[in-house]
Amino acid sequence: MTQTPIKPTVSADEIVDSQAWKTLKASASEFQTLQVKDGSLAPEADQARASELIELIIGAVQELSVHFAHDEAYLNALVKDLAAWKDAGFGVPDFLDSLVQFQPQTQREDGLLHLVLFPMYTQNGSTNRHLEAVLVQVMWPEFIANLEAGSYSNGLFVPLRFLDFTAGYDTNSAVLFPESVAIRETPSFTWGAIFQDREAVRFRKVLKEASAITNLELPADASQLLEDQQLTEDTFIMWDLIHDRTHMRGDLPFDPFMIKQRMPFFLYSLEELRCDLTAFRECVKIHNDANADERTRHTAKLVQYAVIFDRIFRFAITGNRVRNYDGLGGQLLFAWMHQNHVLHWTDTKLTIDWEQVPEVVSALGDAIDELYWKSIDRPKLAHWLAAYELVSATVTPHPASVWAKGPDALPLTAPLREITDQVMDDEFPLSMFYEALSKKMGETIESTRGMYGASSI
Q1: Whose CA is closest to 254, among 81, 429, 376, 350?
Q2: DSSP string, 354-394
Q3: What count of Cα atoms within 13 Å lies in the side-chain half-sphere of residue 456?
């Protein structure tokens, strides 16, 4: 069934520049300074001022709501949640009623605008459940809609573009998840949003710098990603569409997300890398499909470049070295490609044999898939040990590692928590190559904090 396009009453720029949005953003930002970590008002906070700020926010939401008729149920519930929070004295916030009314996955119309306001934390950003406001725009190009309607169904996936935001998103966070919102009970979550414009622009900046530092000559089609923000956004939408759906598909351990379980961080590395390498392999198939349209085939080729470059250049050296599972995934991909002789670091120049890359990279994905397939027949600890063996066969563990000494060195009869505790915070340190690259790239990677599509690189 074809959706009727939703026509905005004003442009995105007009809303960003409106006094109502400026009032909302400024009031929410000031209100954050009155909150403690769980979102409640600090004991010493000025209650009267907090009430004034919430009234200003409510007024701004009501004024802006004329531009968001498609979110009428959510915005009405939001006003009620804000008022109830104020009337109850600003304790731990509960915005369940408005959260269940916000259903952006049912309105994937390219260019559609949303005003989002919740007390929430932001992944890779703030761990405080503070009041955050975000103006966003849906990104849903036709070729993505066709992919999602076909072999790559993912009804929960919502690609977004930043328009403006409060401090919790002036960070590295590139996702908007309902589970981050302060609520009294956990409903069934029905959507997850990713800011593709942020992913795209920081990728472009990091790739530009990393390729210059390593003297890497980019293929002509990969070079397009440096120049074209929209093309890179399309690339990341396609990548994330397939990545996101993979978490619950395939031969999986019982709980691939390992939610609320304390497990060695390298298992998270393998899960995220598995999803990326599934996207890589599917995009190899799409690119080779003569029946696919040219835009889809071309973007599928670019996804392959993006997975490799983002993993080996940004993921591997972003963040600290405390259980950095995304970092380890990047290290593993780089080392796998190097040890399979498709990536070379010779005479201070990085070269990649692109014709052999699909086969070699796909083989790593196949190895992780085999690990998962065997997991259903293994005890949990045996699966952990097999996963460690897969990673440590390619990425060298820390010389002081207990795990690296083998099962006989571990307290195998102890509770699993004690065995997990034997994993070092930096179980797989950076190689000499990455130590040097990190020193040269550190400033560039840090500068991507808070970037979004409108940022200049």
Answers
A1: 376
A2: TTTHHHHHHHHHHHHHHHHHHHTTS-HHHHHHHHHHHHHTT
A3: 0
CA distances from 339 to 180, 216, 334, 386, 454 (A): 40, 18, 9, 20, 39
Please tell me the pTM assigned to this model. 0.94
Render pLDDT for 410-421 as a digit per residue (tens, 0 to 9): 999 999 999 999
Q: CA-CA distance, 26 to 24, in Å (whole number)?
A: 6
d(CA 430, CA 441): 14
Dist. CA 162–CA 105, nearest whole Å: 17
DSSP for 94-150?
A: --HHHHTT--GGG---TT-EEEEEEEE--TTS--S-EEEEEEEEE---HHHHHHHHT
Distance CA 316, CA 435 (A): 10
Contacts with 419 (C-beta within 8 Å, 6 or more apart), sequence order = 381, 384, 410, 411, 412
Where helices occur in 214-293 by DSSP H, the ranges are 220-227, 229-246, 265-287
Domain residue spans in the chain? 12-190, 198-447
pLDDT of 5 reads 46
Q: What is the rounded CA–CA span in Å between residue 9 and residue 439?
A: 48
End-to-end CA gap in the chain? 40
